[in-house]
Each structure stands twice: as C-alpha cells, then as structure tokens.
Amino acid sequence: MTLDTAVLRFAGFVVLTSVLLSIYVHPWWIALAAFAGLNMIQASFTGFCPAAMIFKKLGVRPGNAFN
C-alpha cells in the first residue's frame, strides 16, 4: 500500500463513518464529513495533508501525490 492509497482509504472511511453516525447517533456528525472534505480540498491545493504526515511516520511507503 502506498501513501496515496492509505490517505484516500482513510478519508473514505472517515466520510462513511460520519454519515453513519449522523444517521444513527446525531445529525451533527455530518460536520466530520464536511471537515474531511475541506481537508481534501486544501490538500489538493497546498500538498499539506496531516494524515499523510502521520502515515509517513508510520512507515507507509511514498506514493506520487504526497512527497
């Protein structure tokens, strides 16, 4: 698994978890999905992604997007 796929899988997991929590627990959990979406947008412009930094420290090998 590369860093790119790890970040995308993690973002997808956060969004889907947020949607499920907003359905079954409280509607305000949708804010977590909004935060994840905004983070993905800013990462596409700046290249700065906190999740990528964490995965890199955990030893996930680099991909093409987050060098």
Explain this structure.
By secondary structure, the protein is mostly helical. The protein has helices at residues 3-24, 30-46, 50-57. The chain is 70% helix and 0% strand. The longest helix has 22 residues, at 3-24.
Strand content: under 5%
Tell me the overall shape: elongated
Given the structure, what is the number of helices? 3
Question: What number is the mean pLDDT?
Answer: 93
Low-confidence stretches: none
Return the string of H and E elements.
Answer: HHH
Cα-based radius of gyration, to the nearest Å: 13 Å
* Number of beta-strand segments: 0
Distance between the termini: 15 Å
Helix-and-strand structural type = mainly alpha
Structurally, how many domains make up the residues?
1
Q: Major sheet: size, sense and barrel closure?
A: none
Secondary structure: helix percent: over 70%
Briefly characterize the structure:
This protein is an all-alpha fold and 67 residues long. The chain has one domain (3-57). It has helices at residues 3-24, 30-46, 50-57.
